[in-house]
């Protein structure tokens, strides 16, 4: 095992690692809102506190369990993995003192790269005295074919272009991923947004207690839920899908017929489908509208629509407690 404080870090490694690390973390500061670092906070540079390189090839696994840290995962050459632990603050002297109380272990166990907090600091990431704040970032480069299992107590997580099983959990932060392709993808945050460019899996689960869900393309079955937030998803290929929000709008684009269940307690629902889609339909809301010349064989009245389109097929079911539902033909 290699400890943060048992090895020296050369200046050249610090310069190279800092230059390659993308500035995409979110701030842990007073009144910080979800989203990229503000221009004022972004001016504070990262300082490399620890670096490790491991000889591991495709097919391995990244396991991260850290307290109060952002995690960034990028892909690199097929052979090797690199871990950099960075610190950013508006008072680096104070931040280094707090950081020195922490113990973060980086090690290789078999074909698994492990990063974990083994000792927490005595204070939080923000001090009311002088509005001081600090941010710990774990920046990891791994091969593209790699499983990931990431958990952080309070921080944002980003990942790009990975093939393998993926589980990402943060208790308080946003999740942002580019392309994930694997047997199973699980993205969970207790308080934050979930944004993905492309997800392909046999099973996809997305869950946030307070935040929006935005997925550019999903191939495979998906279950997505937010207690308070909007949902925007494009279903690129057939797969059973369910979406639920307690308070928010839902916009779903459908490419192929597959079972679809959408529910919102308070918000509008838009379902965009190709004109050739064959499906059964059950819609219930304050108002239900078919837009774009879509022909429904059945009934539309009193905030309800039930019947078939193009002869029927998998069930499209949508319900809102307070809002409108629109079934729209894609132009």
Describe the protein in words.
With 331 residues, the protein is mainly beta. It folds into 2 domains: 1-164, no CATH class; 212-331, no CATH class. The chain has helices at residues 11-20, 39-42, 92-101; strands spanning 47-54, 60-66, 70-75, 81-89, 103-109, 112-119, 126-127, 132-142, 146-152, 157-159, 162-163, 166-170, 175-189, 194-208, 213-219, 222-226, 231-237, 241-245, 250-254, 260-264, 269-273, 279-284, 287-291, 297-301, 304-309, 315-320, 324-329. The chain has a 27-stranded mixed β-sheet that branches. Residues 1-39 have low confidence and may be disordered.
Summed up:
By secondary structure, the protein is mainly beta. Helix content is 7%, strand content 54%.
Largest β-sheet summary: 27 strands, mixed
Helix content: under 10%
Structural class: mainly beta
Overall tally of structural domains? 2
State the low-pLDDT regions, or none.
1-39
Mean pLDDT: 86
What proportion of the residues form beta strands (DSSP E)?
Answer: over 45%
Radius of gyration: 23 Å
Question: What global shape is seen?
Answer: elongated
What distance lies between the first and last C-alpha atoms, to the nearest angstrom? 58 Å
Please tally the β strands and state the result: 27
Number of DSSP helices?
3
List SSEs in N-to-C order.
HHEEEEHEEEEEEEEEEEEEEEEEEEEEEE
């Amino acid at each position: 095992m290699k400890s943060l404080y048992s090895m020296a870090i050369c200046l050249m490694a610090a310069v190279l690692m800092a230059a390659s690390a993308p500035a995409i973390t979110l701030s842990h500061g007073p009144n910080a809102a979800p989203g990229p670092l503000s221009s004022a906070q972004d001016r504070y540079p990262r300082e490399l506190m620890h670096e490790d390189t491991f000889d591991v090839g495709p097919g391995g696994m990244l396991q991260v369990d850290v307290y109060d840290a952002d995690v960034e995962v990028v892909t690199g050459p097929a052979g090797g993995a690199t871990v950099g632990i960075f610190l950013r603050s508006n008072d680096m002297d104070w931040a280094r003192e707090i950081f020195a109380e922490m113990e973060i272990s980086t090690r290789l166990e078999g074909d698994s790269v492990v990063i974990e907090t083994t000792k927490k600091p005595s204070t939080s990431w923000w001090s009311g005295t002088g509005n001081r704040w600090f941010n710990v970032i774990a920046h990891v480069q791994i091969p593209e074919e790699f499983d990931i299992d990431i958990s952080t107590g309070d921080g944002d997580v980003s990942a790009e272009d990975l093939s393998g099983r993926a589980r990402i959990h943060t208790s308080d932060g946003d999740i942002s991923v580019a392309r994930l392709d694997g047997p199973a993808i699980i993205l969970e945050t207790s308080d934050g947004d979930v944004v993905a460019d492309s997800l392909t899996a046999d099973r996809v689960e997305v869950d946030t207690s307070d935040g929006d869900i935005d997925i550019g393309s999903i191939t495979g079955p998906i279950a997505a839920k937010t207690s308070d937030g909007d949902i925007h998803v494009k279903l690129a290929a057939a797969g059973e899908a369910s979406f639920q929000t307690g308070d928010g709008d839902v916009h779903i684009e459908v490419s192929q017929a597959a079972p679809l269940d959408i529910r919102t307690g308070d918000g509008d629902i838009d379902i965009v489908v190709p004109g050739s889609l064959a499906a059964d339909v059950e819609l219930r809301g304050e108002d239900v509208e078919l837009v774009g010349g879509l022909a429904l064989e059945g009934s539309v009245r009193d905030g309800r629509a039930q019947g078939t389109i193009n002869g029927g097929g998998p069930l499209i079911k949508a319900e809102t407690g307070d809002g409108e539902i629109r079934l729209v033909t894609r132009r």
